Structures are given as structure tokens and as C-alpha cells.
Amino acid sequence: MSFDIRSITLGSDITADDIAEDLEFLDDWEERYRYIIDLGKQLPGLPDELKTEDRFVRGCQSQVWLETDYDSDAGKLYLAVDSDALIVKGLAAIVLSALNRQAPKAIQQYDMDGFFDRIDLLSHLSPTRGNGLRAMVAKIRHQAEQLDG
Amino acid sequence: MTAKALDIHALRAQFPILDQQVNGKPLVYLDNGATTQKPVAVLDALQNYYRGVNSNVHRGAHYLSDEATGQFEGARQTVADFLNASREEILWTKGTTESINIVAQCVAREQLQPGDEVLISTSEHHANIVPWQQACLATGATLKVIPLHDDCSLDLDAFDSLLSDKTKIVAIGHASNALGTLNPVKHMVAKAKAAGAITLVDGAQAVAHFPVDVQDLGADFYAFSGHKLFGPTGIGVLYGRRELLDAMPPYQTGGEMIEVVTFEKSTWNQLPYKFEAGTPNIAGAIGLAAAIKWLNRQDRAALEAHENALLAHATEHANAFDGLKIIGTAASKVSVLSFLLDGGHPADVGMLLDKQGVAVRTGHHCTMPLMDSLGIPGTVRASFSIYNTLDEVDRLFAALEKVKTFL
Q: Where is the Fe-S metabolism associated domain (chain A) (predicted)?
């Protein structure tokens, strides 16, 4: 198995604050979207054998797959995501910067809408966008609740 | 002779929504297949109705009710004239989807038997698939599907061989929403009728582009939505041949659609009211009639020529654009350009166009079986209308050049 979910360092060496600072520095839409797409391109995707129905998050426009792995000793949830669309994958990477390698309790308490509002990308989390991102965040949160339960 | 030149600026000025900035750029609205914008004449009709006329219809107890009823039934006559039908054959619905559901419910589910077949095509919108599919599942009938040629036109040889005495209903889109393909519905209706089938044509993507005459077409049912014809949302039309409507049971029951009610039984009102339970969308009907009257005042031949010029210009651009593939290249199309960019998921292309003020639709366009048959997740769809300009087509392709630099 070459895919190692614990090799994804978003959330530890690149944090949500780092992403927010980078995005605040970029003021025109082109630079911001090139940055988001690059984040997505740098994020390791899921191998095809992991793109299964149970990891699938359906969006109307694009599709997302989510893999999780809980380290019960450290009390941390590891996350990996993939999408068939570049921008959605980049936005998913931004979600990972906030939630990856975090404790279930911290994941449940995290204000994702507040974060996306701060980086002026809240519209992408909107239920009407249908890009699967909001459903992905809900799925991560649901898993965190079950682990915490 | 070419049609008289169109004054596109005067035409656009009647659609106030078009004059705005989106993401800091002038809006280029190319999502007309999803819904069209509304001219001032329609906005005024809605305002005037609510400001001066609003009242319930068919009650007749006071002045305003008479006035509202007159405008509401006048609107029905306007639609009847628009389709060359009689007013008893025009039913108000919420839209195309409900129109098709009425026929699926009150004809298909009532009449289909195990072994019977319903014939549709691969390129149908979900609204012209799922109601028939569910009626077939409920009755033991079978849904049959006409395949497409490589250019996404219907395979009419396959249609001929699928059509048999088992075929009870043929339901076909007049034009494909996802690809723009214009289907030879008059020819198909004639063949279906000869085989003894009931015919329905989904006209949602047709009525805004060219005149439709249901007598000439010969279909038993014709469905369309007001909001794709420059009218308001929430109002649609089902045309049905009188003999068929008379024989059908009601769709919903309640007020308006009854003649006499006792606790034991009820009898039904005459056509068209038998199918219109509850207070109808009065403002919507009046708004739709305003849209049709507005359209009737335009030079429709010139509008059609203009839309054809938009499509030809867009197709020329698309053929010259490196890495772009047109999906749906039938010879006969309404003004829709569906396409894919190499390495660009439709969702990415759509978002990056939106950032440049260009509104398109991306995804499966409510035609998942069509996308599956083409082996693609979806397309980017630019759908044009009468108020779009050649300059806007140029702006779409300039914006696509920029999108390519992101992929």
C-alpha cells in the first residue's frame, strides 16, 4: 500500500491560520483561485480502490471522496479527500488544514462557516452550491461525534 | 430575403436584469436553458395585478373578482392562441414537470398493463423520464429508450423498430435541454399515432426559440414552463386533446375542480377546471400571458435568425478553440452549445467563468442517463436567448481562454 493517510501534513505543518494569511495577502480573484487550485494539486488524492461508495460524498456538480483513520492512542482523526474537480479539491484541502489531525472534540467545535467567511469563500460552503463540500464537512463532523460519543 | 435587422440594444433595454455587474464584470447571461429573464412588460403585469386587481378567481361576488377572473381566463385564451389550441385544452400547471406528471398519473398509471411499453429517448430530461419510469414500475409496463447517433441526434431507425403495437405512450422532448438537439417530433408523432400510441411532447426547451402549433404537430399532449418563455416561475402549461382530457380522471381533488360535493361523493367540474384544484397561480398565468403577448409583438423570424447567428458564431469559435470538444453536433439544434474543455471538470470551468461575469450551467443538466450514455460526468452548457449578442459570445470564448490558464 503506497497510500499513507498519515503522511498528509495539512493541519499540522500548514494550519488554517497559514492558509488564511496567504489568502488575505492575495487580493485578486485570479491569484486566489490559482492558489486554491495549487493546494488541491499538491494534496495527494485517493487511489482508485479507495473511491468506494462508503467514502463517496455526492454533490450535484462534482464528487468528493473522504477517507478517515482514527489514531486512538493519540486521540486524533486523520483525513484524506479527493474530488474530480480541481477547485473543490483545493477547497477540501482548506477544510483539511482546519480539521486534519485534530481531536474529535475540536473537530465538532470548529466553526467552519466562520473560517470560510474569514477567507471570503463562504459561498462555496453554501447548501445551494451543490459541490459536495458542505456534505463532506458534515460527514467529518458526524464521524467525530461518533468517536467522541 | 433576410429578416429585418434586429435592434438588439432596444431589445436588451427591455430586460433590466441584464444591465448589471457580476464579480466586477458586466454580466453575460448564458443560462437561458435553465430560465430566461423577464421583460419589463412581464414585470409590469405582475405589479399591476397585485397593485390593482388581486382577488380570487371564479367567485364572481364582486368587482375585483370579476376583473381577476377576466384577466386569468384571458391569459388562458392567450396561451391557447399561442399554441393554436382551444381554451378548454389549456391546463395551468406549476411547470413542465407537473404537466408531464399529470399525464403519467392520469393516463399512464390508469391505462398501462403488464407487457405494455412507454417509449422515450436517451436525451430526455429527468422530468420526462422519472414519471414514466415510476408509472411503468407501478403497472408492470416497460420503459423503452431510443438511442442516439454519434452526433446526439435520435436514431430514427431504432425508433421505428422500437415502435410496436405494445407501445402505448411516446414521450419525446421537442429540443434537448443538455445539448440543444432539435428532434423531428412531427414525424415521430405521426408514426407513434399510426402505431396507436398516445403522444406527449416536452416543449420546455422549444417554445422560447420558435413558434409551436399543436394542431400541425399532432401531439396529444404538449408541456412547457412559463419561466423558460420570459414569464414568471411557478406557472406552466399542459395542452391536451379534449377527448383525452375528458376521459382522464382528475389529478388532484379539492376546491375549484368540483361541480357538486356531498360527504358521500363528488362530481367534477368541466374542462379545464377539472384539473385545477385549489386557488391557481393567478399572477403567474397573467404574467405568462404578458410574456406571450410581448413575444407576439416582436419579429419572431428576426429573433430566430438572430439566435441561429449566435449559435453559428459560438460553434465557429468552439471548433477553432484548442482542447474544446462540442457535445452534441446534430445538424438541427436550438441555440445551445454544450462542451468540455481538456483537463477541465465542468464545475471548475463554470466557477472560473462565473468569476469573469459569465453565467453558464455545468453538470449533468438533469440528464444523468444521457451523460452516462456519453461516458462523461457532465458538460458546460452555454444556452443563448434572443437578447444575447455576438459580442457576448466573443466574451465567453475570451473568458474560456483565461480558464485554460488555470487547468
A: 21-142
